[in-house]
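Residues determine shape. Next comes a sample protein:
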Amino acid sequence: MSNKYKMSSTELGALWMTYHKKTMILRILEYFIEKADDEEAKNLMSGLWEQLHPKIIEMESMFINEGAVPPKGFTKVDVNLEAPKLWENGFDIMFSRILKEISTGMYALHLTISYREDIIKLYKQLTEITENYYDKFHNIFLESLFFHVQTMSICQVQLILYMINST
């Protein structure tokens, strides 16, 4: 897409940060997908990866078209897929849900400091992906939470319910 205006420094900075965050999330998802025991969780995280990967390529094109060098970001050498799993079932979904919470706030902020149509469109698309997957991660998290409540102490259940109600 050709643009009438050059990217502003705030747009470039926000896009740079978004690129790093997205490449980091792809690496985290690759590790979670590799270690997932739950097929539903694995499919959900794979779907998110497939939605985000083209956005990385789109951002790289934006940098190049602007005459800027695309950031290196996080690459496959930054994660060891053979490293042992250090969590119990459900952590991957809970963590992914938290990442979507953070993304929601970041896109709202980045959208308000962007002026070019292509950048605004990118953040709107990322927001849509984020809201969609937040709902999916939230629902699967709640399903697994209520399944495991029977094995938790009263204090653990109260803490989790407090955390859910405060978000």
Notes: The mean pLDDT is 88. Residues 9-165 form a domain with the Ferritin fold (CATH 1.20.1260.10).
